[in-house]
Amino acid sequence: QLLAEIEKSTDKMNAAIYELNNQINFATSNSISLDAYLHQEIEEIVLIDDDGLVNEMNKVVIRSVFPDMPVKVFNEVDYAISHINAHPFTRRKIIVDLNFPHKSGWQFLDEYQKLDQPWSVVVLTSSLQQEDIERSKGYRFVTHFMTKPLNQAQLKGLRILASKKLRVA
To answer: pTM (2 decimals)?
Structure first.
């Protein structure tokens, strides 16, 4: 019941963001083929957020759609970057929050940009600031700006293709 109400609330907030932003994805603003980002077969999902409760809720949503998908959760940017550096060839979808007490999601995006990885990043935040939406567009690999917590409709909207080794619900 509570999860359904949270999903309904999140859907309303996302509709408002999309209406204000007048575009769902950011990749096309940099003349990059969005298909290359949206139709990637992945092996793991990386969640980067310092809020443990939100991480648990996001994992529940991911497991409801991708029961066998490995989900790596990091509450600090440096740990996430270390994981990505340690496994540079793992096909992944990265979901990052913007606001952290130490290094922010913005700092993650800056560091990730230097790695020149081919995997897209989704900004999942509680921020509704237009300047955050606009700033996100400056990263060629950021494909979506969504409000948290993640819900099934948002996850399905990312059009993730699970590795053929993984089961999809």
So the answer is: 0.76
